[in-house]
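Priority: medium. Attachment 1 of 2:
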């Protein structure tokens, strides 16, 4: 049996979860369990399972999403907007004030380095 994801376990016990109101305007970037169990923090050298419980780590993995209300929802304009956005970078803020860039199904830090290619995105509403 595969162990529980340390990120989800820490997030559910953290005060960071209570900051995700309304839940529909937040997205969790959840690292895969295998990555968390096998990797070490680059700065401290500590196992990621130890670092994942910090509010800084958790807050960096919660994106704030603006409400999707706009003039193009559901019609022909929405299709055109999706086509126009393909290949363009989109910047999202995190709970702790950092920024993440999403482009071409990759997630980058604000410094331009790729931080993942295998994250699962889950809304807190589903947790």
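Attachment 2 of 2:
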């Amino acid at each position: 049996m595969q162990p529980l994801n340390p990120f989800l376990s820490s997030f559910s016990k953290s005060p960071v979860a209570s900051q995700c109101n309304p839940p529909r305007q937040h997205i969790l970037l959840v690292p895969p369990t295998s990555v968390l169990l096998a990797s070490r923090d680059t700065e401290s050298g500590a196992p990621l399972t130890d670092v994942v419980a910090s509010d800084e780590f958790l807050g960096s993995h919660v994106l704030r999403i603006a409400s999707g209300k706009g003039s193009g929802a559901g019609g022909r304009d929405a299709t055109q907007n999706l086509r126009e956005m393909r290949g363009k970078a989109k910047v999202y803020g995190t709970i702790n004030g950092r920024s993440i860039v999403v482009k071409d199904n990759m997630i980058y830090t604000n410094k331009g380095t790729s931080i993942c290619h295998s994250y699962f995105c889950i809304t807190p509403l589903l947790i």
